[in-house]
Amino acid sequence: MSEASVAVHADADLLAQAVAARLLVKLLDAQADRGQASVVLTGGRIAAAVYRAVVALPARDAVDWARVDVWWGDERFLPAGHPERNETQARSQLLDLLPLDPARVHPMPASDGPDGADPEAAAARYAEELAAAARPGHATLPHFDVLLLGVGEDGHVASVFPEHRVHYESRPVSAVRGSPKPPPVRITLTLPAINTAEEVWLVASGSDKAAAVHMALDGAGPVQLPAAGAAGVSRTLWLLDRAAAADVRPRFRSLR
Ligand SMILES: O=C1O[C@H](COP(=O)(O)O)[C@@H](O)[C@H](O)[C@H]1O
Q1: Domains of the chain (ranges, CATH numbers)
Q2: Is 179 in the pocket of ligand 1 (CB under 6 A)?
Q3: Nearest CA owner, ligand 1 atom 10
Q4: pLDDT attached to residue 139
Q5: Which residue numbers delimit the Glucosamine/galactosamine-6-phosphate isomerase domain (predicted)?
Q6: C-alpha dihedral over 70, 74, 78, 84, to 10 degrees?
Q7: What predicted TM-score, i.e. pTM, was given to this entire model?
Q8: Is ligand 1 within 6 A of the CB of residue 251?
Q9: Does the Cβ of 89 fall within 6 Å of ligand 1?
Q10: Please, which residues have CB within 8 angstroms of residue 230's CB and are 6 or more apart in sequence?
Q11: What is the mean pLDDT of the chain?
């Protein structure tokens, strides 16, 4: 796992624009290296701003979107098209506006999908979809070039919440019942699955995230503060605005 590094931008708007620009470069580099690219999407407010910023950048057309695989790190287990689904947000703000190959877009199942309202079966189905795309030598997961995470006020990432039993799940995808943040039923990649990504970017905006950001970078344990347990294989990048970075310790300040 890689050491965390931190980049701080003046406000949420600049943060979203910077993350969008980084994301395009990351996808371009991956396509130059591997002929294809893969991204794991997140939900939440800053993610939506990033998606809008990607679409607004002219350089978006430099990416060959037909050779991008799109996965999700977590999903709110609601009917397809529900406005609170992370998929619905990503499609309306980003995916529907890009020339992607629909076969390479991999949403997590909805609660009115083939498994009905059974999140455990839906999680198992998504695990199978991931395994079917696994690279040789990796039994359960495909290669993720970059995995995006929002950070909750409580330090949750994806739908891995503090002190939740999902921390003791050994499979890469888990159903989550009793989420402290609505809706109560969700599906998530677990931290070990998240941590197989080449790069993990934790994106946080606003003063209500400052305490969680500070604790995650200051040695909190992952069960107490899940964001502390998210790390990419080659890079772990915290992308913050000034308000979210307000309590970050001086050892990171040279990067501000
Ligand atoms: O419920 C969720 O929340 C987090 C963070 O959302 P935000 O609006 O506080 O930025 C998000 O990362 C996660 O994917 C989502 O399911």
Answers
A1: 4-221+235-255 (3.40.50.1360)
A2: no
A3: 44
A4: 80
A5: 11-238
A6: -80
A7: 0.97
A8: no
A9: no
A10: 149, 157, 191, 194, 195, 200, 202, 222, 236
A11: 96
